[in-house]
Specification:
The protein has six helices and five strands. By secondary structure, it is of the alpha+beta class. It has one domain. It has a three-stranded mixed β-sheet, with no helix packed on it. A hairpin with a 6-residue loop joins strand 1 and strand 2.
């Protein structure tokens, strides 16, 4: 249970990457209210998302292929207020523990899906949506 004793900034790459629970909520297209900065999630996902596995189809090159994709690091985590409240990185940064369904806690990569925390079965890929229609896709189920 390295995440209980080691600060995020001291984790090695393998530990850091293992914190991702595989929910893929961060891969959803988000809209920002220009007046107050409020973030709205949509049910529209990045075109690289594999909807069945909730993994990136080109994780190593994602930031090249999707210029606005953000590589999460201990240095930029606090700046990313749009990260879902149940995101493991955000939870740990806020002093909370991992959720019961997190694979590191449950021992299974399926519990994130069984709990309903993942986007599996809930999204459409962005190539099928006109950008003018994104407001019609705002959702409230992101945790």
């Amino acid at each position: 249970m390295f995440w209980k004793t080691k600060p995020l900034a001291e984790m090695n790459e393998e530990e850091w990457e293992s914190l991702c629970d595989g929910c893929s909520q961060c891969c959803l297209v988000k809209l920002e209210n220009a007046d107050n900065g409020e973030i709205f999630y949509t049910d529209v996902a990045c075109y690289l998302l594999d909807q069945d596995t909730c993994t990136c189809g080109d994780y190593q090159q994602r930031c090249v292929r999707v210029p606005d994709c953000v590589k999460l690091t201990p240095d930029n985590l606090e700046e990313l207020s749009w990260m879902p409240a149940d995101c493991a990185y955000r939870r740990l940064a806020e002093g909370r523990d991992l959720a019961w369904w997190h694979p590191l806690v449950s021992g299974s990569s399926e519990t994130v899906h069984e709990s309903g925390a993942s986007v599996r079965g809930k999204v459409i890929i962005e190539t099928g949506v006109d950008s003018d229609e994104l407001e019609d896709h705002i959702i409230d189920w992101v945790r």
